[in-house]
Amino acid sequence: MKLFEKAERLKQLPPYLFKEIDRKKAEIKAKGVDIIDLGVGDPDMPTPQHIIEAMKRAIDEPANHRYPSYSGMNDFREAVARWYRERFGVDLDPEREVVSLIGSKEGLAHFPLAFIDPGDIALVPTPAYPVYHIGTLFAGGESFFMPLVSKNKYLPDLKEIPESVAERARIMFINYPNNPTAAVADLSFFEQVVAFARKYHIVVCHDAAYTEMAFDGYRAPSFLEAPGAKEVGVEFHSLSKTYNMTGWRIGFAVGNEKGMEGLGAIKSNIDSGVFQAVQMAGIEALQGDTSCVREMTQVYTERRDIMVQGLRDAGFHVTSPKATFYLWVTVPEGYSSAQVTTRLLEEAGVVVTPGNGFGGPGEGYFRIALTQKKERLAEALERLKGMRF
Ligand SMILES: *Cc1c(COP(=O)(O)O)cnc(C)c1O
What is the DSSP letter of 27? Predict the structure, then answer.
């Protein structure tokens, strides 16, 4: 064995499909091209001021400088429970059914360590946020991929999961409103998932990072609103996208008591919780003035409308999403995701993400993140006009 020979779990990592585009982006940037980056799902607007002020106050408090409690401050977990009751009509016990996270990605990555043994299966959507598959891999499990395709409105077709797979599955990951497809799910889909999970004894992990980023009066449901959901499931939330707090690292998991206990046991042996001053800021986000969320939603609505219209005028097929700050655009006839992405970068200086980077069934699409000001989006569209596909 060579010194620093990598462990199997690292060798098994899927190829990083954005490598080529990252290289080209750097190359084009070096030439001095004014790049418009619609690639990353990271809000461009600052964290609302009242949340920053709460952090400033909390940071002066010496009690906050010490190790936080593993499962999160009581006040933070109570704020989460209150928010769930008001927002979704779901009751949670703040002590047993809420865990604070160093961002929801952390919780999603650690969750399989608590419930997957080598040889176990996790049901993982594709295309998807990569951490569901990678968390499974790191726990020694295998992913069974559930394709999300247009004909099924980007919901997994549970009937397509073979009985032998369902019987070995321990976890099912789902995510609505969805990244990268921007699809939404209604309560009746969640009810089907609950029935499936009950039948096969599968823990459902719902990633709800985008429930608050919804437009035109659409209200995204929590998985826990489905009757019986708490018996089989847990839900992961993030303050990152809703409150422009990606850099702060705060999120939370809620739901089944045994699920929280398992996740908490893994976490208490790996990390030491979220900086309390950041949790205080989180409390302010959840309990304070929420007009900031409405204002940001308004900004994304405008951006979405400009971009959807402009893309359609340029001949692209795109559905106007009800939620998330993504557009899932069909590539023109005769092109692959990589080819279109490369042309947009080389000829227009516009960065978008090739759909296949999120998994095989993402081929034939590219994702646009609405994380630039509308003037920049208009500029991107102007540059697109000159291109012919
Ligand atoms: C951004 C994102 C997350 C991670 O959010 P953090 O709380 O910042 O870790 C989780 N899930 C999806 C689908 C995301 O797009």
Answer: H
